[in-house]
């Protein structure tokens, strides 16, 4: 009989949790007007209510060249060859602090225009980096370890630079899991306390 009562309590606690236990996916492809400067070095991109901000060393530029030649770059003429990509010595910094309120379970970054022998570098503000090579070109690559380090330091800064050659930022994709609301957590805690008390009383007989 006591197991039936415990099972009922478990069901009550489970029912107190948010109805949706599904993960959420946020995707930023940074698409704006094709092959045009944004006319600013800082721009906010919003997906499903979450905003991340990009800041370039020059004005941002959304390049559409097909395949891995499409993505966020820089309006860097006449300093460079006007291919509107991130060149060595340049960077685009992203502020991902808008994600800190979410429970991030995976985060993938896709860089493009990385030819054999070229590299891109993705770092936080504290020197932890991930190097992208041509094997990562136009493929979503996990940067979860980097994001975790950013959270530890309470800094949302993610810095994308070119090592050799040049790169574009094609996409950022984040998956989150639901965070129980405080009211749900209170109900769950009450249920667990009740369950513990019932077990203690039963065992004491």
Reported for the largest beta sheet, the result is: 6 strands, antiparallel
Share in helix: 10-25%
Strand order of the largest sheet: 3-4-7-12-9-10
Rg over alpha carbons? 23 Å
Task: Using the coordinates shown, work out and report the CATH topology of the largest domain.
Answer: Jelly Rolls
Give the ordered list of helices and strands.
HEEEEEEEEEEEHEEH
Structural class: alpha+beta
Basic shape: globular
CATH architecture assignment of the largest domain: Sandwich
- Domain module tally: 2
Percent of residues in beta strands?
35-45%
Q: Would you count the extended β strands for me? A: 13
| Top-tier CATH class of the largest domain | Mainly Beta
Give start-end ranges of low-pLDDT stretches: 1-20, 183-189
Task: Describe the oligomeric state of these chains in a short phrase.
Answer: single chain
Number of helices: 3
Mean pLDDT: 85
Terminal CA distance: 14 Å
SSE order and pairing:
Layout: H1 2-16, E1 24-28, E2 36-37, E3 42-47, E4 50-56, E5 60-63, E6 71-74, E7 91-95, E8 103-112, E9 119-124, E10 129-132, E11 141-142, H2 144-152, E12 157-164, E13 168-177, H3 182-204
Antiparallel strand pairs: 1-13, 2-5, 3-4, 4-7, 5-6, 7-12, 8-11, 8-13, 9-10, 9-12
Verbal overview:
By secondary structure, the protein is an alpha+beta fold. It has two domains: 1-21 and 180-205; 23-177, Jelly Rolls (Sandwich). The chain contains three helices and 13 strands. The protein has helices spanning 2-16, 144-152, 182-204, and strands at residues 24-28, 36-37, 42-47, 50-56, 60-63, 71-74, 91-95, 103-112, 119-124, 129-132, 141-142, 157-164, 168-177. A six-stranded antiparallel sheet has the order 3-4-7-12-9-10. Helix 1 (2-16) runs antiparallel to helix 3 (182-204). It starts with a helix and ends with a helix. Residues 1-20 and 183-189 have low confidence and may be disordered.
């Amino acid at each position: 009989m006591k197991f039936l009562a415990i099972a009922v309590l478990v069901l009550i606690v489970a029912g107190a949790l948010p109805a949706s236990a599904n993960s959420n996916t946020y995707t930023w492809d940074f698409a704006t007007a094709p092959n045009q400067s944004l006319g600013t070095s800082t721009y906010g991109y919003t997906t499903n209510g979450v905003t991340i901000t990009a800041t370039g060393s020059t004005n941002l530029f959304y390049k559409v060249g097909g395949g891995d030649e499409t993505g966020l770059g820089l309006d860097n003429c006449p300093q460079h060859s006007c291919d509107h990509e991130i060149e060595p010595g340049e960077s685009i910094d992203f502020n991902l602090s808008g994600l800190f309120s979410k429970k991030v379970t995976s985060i993938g970054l896709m860089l493009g225009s990385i030819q054999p022998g070229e590299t891109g570098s993705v770092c936080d503000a504290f020197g932890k980096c991930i190097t992208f090579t041509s094997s990562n070109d136009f493929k979503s690559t996990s940067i979860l370890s980097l994001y975790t380090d950013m959270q530890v330091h309470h800094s949302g800064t993610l810095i994308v630079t070119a090592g050799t050659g040049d790169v574009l930022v094609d996409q950022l994709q984040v998956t989150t899991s639901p965070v129980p609301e405080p009211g749900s957590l209170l109900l769950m805690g009450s249920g667990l306390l009740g369950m513990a008390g019932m077990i203690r009383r039963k065992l004491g007989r």
